[in-house]
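Forum: Protein Structure Q&A
Topic: Joint prediction for protein chains with partners

I've read a bunch of threads here and the consensus seems to be that you should model interacting components together rather than docking separate models afterwards. I'd like to see that in practice. Below is the full input, 619 residues plus whatever partners are listed. Could one of the regulars post the assembled result?
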Amino acid sequence: MRHFLDFEKPIAELEGKIEELRRMSEPGGINITDEIGKLTEKADKQLRATYARLTPWQKTLVARHPDRPKALDYIRHLITDYTPLAGDRAFAEDAAIVGGLGRFRGRSVVVLGTEKGADTETRIRHNFGSAKPEGYRKARRLIELAGQFRLPLLTFVDTSGAFPGIDAEARGQAEAIARSIEACLSAPVPIVATIIGEGGSGGAIALATGNRVLMLEHAIYSVISPEGCASILWRDSAQAALAAEALKLTAADLKHLRLVDEIIAEPLGGAHRDPGPAVHAVGTAVENQLLPLLGLEPEALRVQRRDKFLAMGREGVA
Amino acid sequence: MSWLTEYVRPRIRTLLGQREVPENLWSQCPACQQMIFAKELEKNLKVCPHCAHHMRATAIERLGWTFDDGAYTRIELPKVPVDPLAFRDSKRYVDRLREARTKTGMEDALIVAHGTIDGHRAVVGAMEFDFIGGSMGAAVGEGLVAAARLAVLQEAPLILYTASAGARMQEGAVSLMQMPRSVIATMLLKEARLPLLIVLTDPTTGGVTASFAMLGDIHIAEPGALIGFAGARVIEQTVRETLPEGFQRAEYLHEHGIVDMIVARTDMRDMLSRLMALLRPPAEAITGEPAPAEPEDAAAA
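Posted by a regular:
Agreed with the consensus. Here's the joint model:
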């Protein structure tokens, strides 16, 4: 069954009606094709209108949509010979961070992603995409592996943030994130990072310090969740919609602030409505961004990445 | 970049200034509730003489306590675009900034100075918790990069006193990008083989901990300082467990291998000086040539 968000209700109602009419017309009785056509057109129009002016809070809900393609969906469809690798070599395997070797468009690469899971079982297995220190240490290991064998690194980021837990703190969550950022900045290979859903703060930047940073049209990228920000600044987490507005966390905002390089358009009604084309569009965008980087020397890649981040926040926006 | 300087004279003058405020004659220790004579507290670097509780200190105080005779030269930090998001909650961010500036006398939450510590040349950055929770926005990120560049230019170690609630929310994703930017600052030191000494003070959390603050060559913590990534309340709500005694305190981090040592504020200068002396590479490591022989050796040969 398809999940509908609150603001998608009018669309859901129309689609329900269409479904009902289809069922009625099946036995060959009344011909209501015309009626169905009209309603379908109306539903499309409604969908287009709704998605053309999503508020930042609505985008947040779309970015977290349970049916939205997750990191593993991108990896499965874009990477052939995907060979998952596991563990931080020190403490544990953390399934919130997935990654390994594979081929992207025929070329050997290392992929990394934060994986939220798609149903109850996998969500629990992947800890809802919130990694612990061992996850970031595994990420660092794979980033260094990419460097060692001069393989491009592709990352797919979708996390509400690093896991806030007692054990995570005890094992140095902060240090693990910092080292993962450092590994990205030191890598002698191209890094193309894509924010596919939620880019949640430090847990996201740990895997997103790339030569190119792409963002899906309805993804969000923020220093704190709207709920967290609202509970601190408005002292009321129910003000999340206001906070989402203030935080400027949409792809368009990030592009305007010159913090991401490209926005990848999503199919009408969001990636969750039509995952196939969404995944394909990401593959094309990543390839287009990766190709020009392949000719660059290791040092040039490091310098480009460093300069890119050094410029952020130093220069004003147009 | 102009390293416009503001020279701070030895500390006698500051002491004279404080004597004019009679209501500050006595302070109460928030830990043991004992009354402390202000002058004594000042002399003891805001450490309670009864229970050794380390009270919070301002960035300016830290500089004064660190450099020889309390004398140092502050550098002007690069200007960054203000309020990139045009942010407002109950208050406009620009107004919060103005208030913080009035309250602290600082431009933003970081000040950087250079001078000597026990004769060793050093660059020191100190964060001000009273400036919007010591939060890291573009100005702090840029300041850290400037501090690192100055250290490299002077071939001096960089000492950073951290005190921060984390990222500056009011700068949204711009503040998030200060995490990699501050990491770049640490890499500049590393590439120049210059020591980066991090002094974690109460409190240091969030995006500051998860970036430059955990990438020092040596991590020093003040006793009892709260240091961590996630806030205690968030953790409690997530795991629905009572947090262990002393959780996220300096001693807990030391026990878990995250900081090298816990150093009392009154011993900090000595420890910093000792570390700088021990970490200073022999001259040949820098110049690539053997160090000139001592006169006595020359005579012996």
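Chain B touches chain A through 58 residues (CB under 8 Å).
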